[in-house]
Amino acid sequence: MFSEKDILQIQERGISVEKIQRQIKNFENGFPYLGILRAATLNDGIKNYSREEVVGLADSYDRRKKGAVVKFVPASGAATRMFKDLYEFLNTGEINDSVRRVMEDIEKFPFFADLKASGIDLGDSKEVISYIVGEGLNYGNLPKGLILFHKYDDESRTAVEEHLAEAGAYGVSSENRARIHFTVSPEHLELFDRHVKESVPKFEQEYGVKYDVTFSCQKPSTDTIAVDMENNPFREDDGSILFRPAGHGALLENLNDIDADIIFIKTVDNVVPDHLKSDTVLYKRAMAEILLRLQQRCFEYVNALECGANEPLLEEIEEFIKEDLSYNFRNEFSRKTNKEKANTMMGILNRPIRVCGIVRNEGEPGGGPFWVRSEEGDVSLQIAESAQIAPEKSDVMRKATHFNPVDIVCAVKDYRDKKFDLLKFTDPRTGFISEKSKNGRKLKAQELPGLWNGSMAGWNTVFVEVPISTFSPVKTVNDLLRPQHQ
Predict the structure, then answer these.
(1) Which of 221, 320, 349, 360 is the most buried (most CB within 10 A)?
(2) DSSP character at residue 142
């Protein structure tokens, strides 16, 4: 199947031929659906805390010596889809509802001052829209992180700047440093770097902290091969193999390179202006405290098991794993010896932990929290996308009351303070296959297990209900007109 030239091309990307062959097998066999049992709901997989409890947790977190804290922001996505309807207008000349809304509320956008200063005719739809997406603001070619999201009295802020502000409010380490890591595309790295260097001084002055901002790009070694409709390697006109970025699951490698005690994960477009940040800041601190308390108990139990396990201790730990970590062992667990039980429990306790903020489903798209049975028979909590759920389980999906807004706090070190290799806790059976096209030819593309889906399938997962005010994604340009962004 592969020539010497193909093998050289594969190896130059840092990929083994064996890995590519496994990817082709995935195309041939497909990925299995998840063993969905039921949707996680309040008091059945989703924990709920009163406002008073949340405040107490947040205050407790503030009193801790936190260690190294990092805010991890996937920010490589282009903003092209934000302006899809605007491009459609420029291509067809027909004003659609989105363009009409933009023109009606043009003064409410955070980039209005730039439009006004440009001297263009603000009453000319074509001139305004062309300036926004094309030469002028060039928003159609920029990543979301570099687009102005919010207007303040004396300035407007990009999404990146709002993440800087968030980090100053809750992402500060014991050394009074706010560390943020953005994953960006290589072509935008210089723009991000310049923008951050220009922005950091004002936030350091406002929050009284030092910022440490780093960047990384998706690694070529995480790209996946594309195939034609017969599952043969899809070839470019010059005969070379086509490789494609493998979705946000590829960022697990970037996350794995982060060495920190606490990692906050949040998508780049889910930010709000300062006057609406209080809930976000409060719940992030509370979730971090929940995480650290769970981690502490896991460590205590692991150390206890290393010293020997008696029946009462095993029963106590099994109850903790079931009630606090929401993990149910397969039936044969009860028939194991005490030594076997202790070893199994060690394997569950000594894993990365994530506390995920879950919001009530109000019609927004996104994966949801479910109880899932693994092929081995254990039951745990997982975030599942609709594509991972079998058609005959669609009724289970419809009963879901909450969904995942990608609001995650992680602990990635073991009880000996050694960082886990996160690549060992993925489920490779949870990838995605989709149909695409290039130059008019159909192809099939493969995504790696999603960063917060299959890539974290082997983590201990806790779902906590958070208010909808903490979730304000910007998917289209007119989302910036929502009350959450004004």
Answers:
(1) 349
(2) S
Residue found by looking up tokens 């060992």 in the block: 424
Give the C-alpha separation, 363 to 385, whole Å.
15
- CA atoms of 455 and 424, how far apart (whole Å): 9
Tokens of 421: 């290799």
Q: For residue 364, what pLDDT is reported? A: 58
CB atoms within 10 A of CB 84: 13
Q: Are 335 and 346 in contact (CB under 8 A)?
A: no
**Which amino acid appears at position 11 of this protein?**
Q
Model confidence, pTM = 0.93
Reference 291, options 466, 408, 179; nearest CA is: 408
Contact 228, 234 (CB under 8 A): yes
**Which amino acid is present at 326?**
S
Q: Which two tokens stand for residue 60?
A: 């407790």
| Terminal CA-CA length for the chain | 56
**pLDDT of 365 above 60:** no
b/e burial code for range 430-446 (CB count within 10 A of at least 16 → b): bbbeeeeeeeeeebbbb
In the numeric block, which tokens belong to residue 85?
């309807």
Other beta carbons within 10 Å of 326: 21
- One-letter identity of residue 169: A
pLDDT tens per residue, range 203-242: 999 999 999 999 999 998 999 999 999 999 999 989 999 9
Q: What is the largest CA-CA distance in the chain?
A: 79
Helical segments of 231-373, H only: 252-256, 278-306, 311-323, 338-349
Q: Which two tokens stand for residue 265?
A: 């994960």
Which residue blocks in 105-145 are alpha helix, DSSP H? Answer: 112-118, 125-133
Contact 476, 85 (CB under 8 A): yes
363: pLDDT strictly greater than 70: no
CA 428, CA 430: separation in Å to the nearest integer? Answer: 5
Length of the chain in residues, anyone?
A: 486
